[in-house]
Amino acid sequence: MTKQAEKTPIAILISGRGSNMTALLEACAKPDYPARVVLVLSNRPEAPGLEIARQYGVPTEVIDHKLYGRDRESHEKAIDHCIRESGATLICLAGYMRVLTPYLVRQWSGRMLNIHPSLLPAFPGLHTHEAALQAGVKEHGCTIHLVTDGVDEGPILAQARVPVRTDDNADRLAHRVLEQEHRLYPEVLAQFIEKKKESL
Ligand code: GRF
Which of 105, 120, 171, 183 could form a disulfide with 143 if both were Cys (CB 3.0 to 4.6 A apart)? Predict the structure, then answer.
């Protein structure tokens, strides 16, 4: 059993439904898992994932990007402050739908993970399942990577693949990729922590 105090404190950033966040919360609830969630933060007050996090008894915060207009850096400074206050030493982006500026990326360099629903470097950005179907690829999937300045460009930690079926549509494909996301993110986070523990 990993003592609570020995678990790495993490913050999860979301913007929406939070199914990857839920997969991480489930993993963190296990006695032997090496992380604990100390904060779930959303840039959108109406994100359904916030209520789920509350049900897990995790502190939640909203830092609404709309209140900052075009000043992305001030928004990120508020986020950074909140995360540091929480005691988190690692950030997991889980459906956080804002492009980050170099400010936050550099503050958390090597300590911020993201999950992306494609086999990067294929299909960065939005609408990845539609793009994969359009391109006619035989395999699609998801990627966990470290966050760097370029969008969806950081070093890849792991990928999971799913075959694309001839009768697939974007919803069916998204569903099968999501199942892999929920398996992969907790697994890779645990491996990452075990490897980097001393520097976190
Ligand atoms: C996931 O497909 C994730 O890969 C992407 O955004 C989606 C978020 O879904 N970054 P959820 O909020 O985790 O359910």
Answer: 120
